[in-house]
Backbone:
């Protein structure tokens, strides 16, 4: 589990609740913990009381491993699909996840805290040693206006106008970011704006229309395969 | 929609039901139809009665396009995840989908008819012009014993023993098949058996543990990018 405040001593109330009531742990159980900085540790539960759990570190299991510097920026879709995107982006090793509001985005409020809880669960499940950073939702034009030009921005272009994905991502390098649109894709004005930027590149994933969540997971998988840590 | 029996005249009762009660179509509406052989056609609904719908072909919209000869073979997992695998494999252009029973597969009955219904829906959604073939579930040892040696079999090896996926799939060629395991992966005996086959190759997707459905979608996306029809 994630322990932001170090590994020894008394855990916070939500963490204690999670261990005892969700994970059904009890005293003397051993658990794997990480804090996003120091690696993975085997810890033992020493004491369980009504509202708190105390643990001790037994040994370090893994050195820290960071994911590559790749961001997933996506237009929020329906609740289940958005949850899915957060989960898959975490498993597939996105360093940062950014909800982006585009013209065709169905304006639902985005719940950063909820996204973060899902990212934590997914990180624990896939034994990733850090939780991706979840940014507050940002409008596309603002995102592009404030863009750090050292980071390549790959936008998934459903109109077929982009470079094929294997060529684009084989030459990617880091840092990089992937941007996927909502159902209906980007508006013509958005495509024109993105194409006019030197740091941005349109990428094509074939002729079949991919759902928003499929496009996000597929693009991230291809990037990890071609320029990320699946290549090692 | 899929029309297995041609485009003109009276539709079957389930097809009529789908158009009228699910899609809320009525007389004079125009719909896009495909039959898996001849391409895509614009049709008009001429007549709606209680149990049947009559349509006429107006014009051909697209020539037939086949997906590449890639199969997805996967160990069935929980219901929602398996549904997800069928949907994503269809979107991501698998020609054939094969449920495979492995040692660690949680033995649930697989419902071929249900899978087919989901593949049809996904094909319509992504405007794919044919529905993937859904095979009956088969045991892994039988699948391997009856294997056509001209088809390369890529099995996703979670132990990290495999070739990295970009190298493996860049050299893939067709025909090919991707095999993904259940939660917990393949058994040591299964890995040994697969590694002993000349037509089989172990493939690695990095160190993070991917859920079964993530692995299936990610592997198929990488194959389409590197050897499939995203490369065109």
Residues:
């Amino acid at each position: 589990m994630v322990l932001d405040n170090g590994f020894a001593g008394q855990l916070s109330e939500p963490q204690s609740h999670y261990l005892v009531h969700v994970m059904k742990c009890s005293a003397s159980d051993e658990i794997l913990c990480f804090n996003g900085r120091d690696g993975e540790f085997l810890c033992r539960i020493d004491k369980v009381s009504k509202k708190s759990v105390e643990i001790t570190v037994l040994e370090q299991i893994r050195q820290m491993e960071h994911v590559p510097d790749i961001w997933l920026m996506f237009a929020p879709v329906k609740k289940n699909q958005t949850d899915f995107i957060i989960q898959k982006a975490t498993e597939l090793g996105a360093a940062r996840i950014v909800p982006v509001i585009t013209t065709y985005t169905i304006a639902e409020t985005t719940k950063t805290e909820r996204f973060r809880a899902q990212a934590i669960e997914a990180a624990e499940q896939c034994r990733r040693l850090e939780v991706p950073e979840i940014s507050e939702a940002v409008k596309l034009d603002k995102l592009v206006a404030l863009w750090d030009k050292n980071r390549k921005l790959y936008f998934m272009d459903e109109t077929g106008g982009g470079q094929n994905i294997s060529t684009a991502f084989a030459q990617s390098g880091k840092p990089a970011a992937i941007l996927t649109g909502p159902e209906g894709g980007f508006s013509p004005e958005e495509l024109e704006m993105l194409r006019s930027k030197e740091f941005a590149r349109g990428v094509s994933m074939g002729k079949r229309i991919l759902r928003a969540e499929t496009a996000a997971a597929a693009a991230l998988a291809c990037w990890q395969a071609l320029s990320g840590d699946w290549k090692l």
